[in-house]
Specification:
The chain contains 4 helices and 5 strands, in the order αααβαββββ. By secondary structure, the chain is an alpha+beta fold. It has one domain: Nuclear Transport Factor 2, Chain: A. Strands 1-5-4-3-2 form a 5-stranded mixed β-sheet.
Amino acid sequence: MSRNLLPLLALALAGCGGEPPPLAMATTPEQSRAALVAALDAWKAGVTPAELAARTPAVYLLDDACSRGAKLTDYKIEGEPKVFGTGLSYALTLTLQDGGKPPAARKVAYRVVTSPTVAISREDGTP
C-alpha cells in the first residue's frame, strides 16, 4: 500500500468508532397523546382500522383485538409515556367486549409515532 494512502485510510477509519448518534424522536408527548386518544375514541365509536387508515392523514392502529372486531367500551391512560425507540410508549387499561363475553379490563401498552405517519401499535409483553 502506498505511504500516501495510509494517512487517508487512518482518517477514514477514525470516524468509524464509538457509539452511533441516537435516532431522532418521531413524535412529541403532545402529538402522540392526541393521536392515541383520537384513535381510541374512534375505536370506541365503532370505527375500523381500515377506516382509520383511509383518513387524511392516515392513522394506522395495529391491534389484534381491534382488527378482529372486539368492542372497546372504555380506556384509561396510566401515567406518563416512556421513550421507546423513536416513539413513546403508553400504558393503558382497556375494557374490551370480545364476542358474546362480558366486558373485561386488560392492561396493555401502545407505542406511538406521528412522523412520517401516525402509527399506534400494541406492544406484546408489556406493560
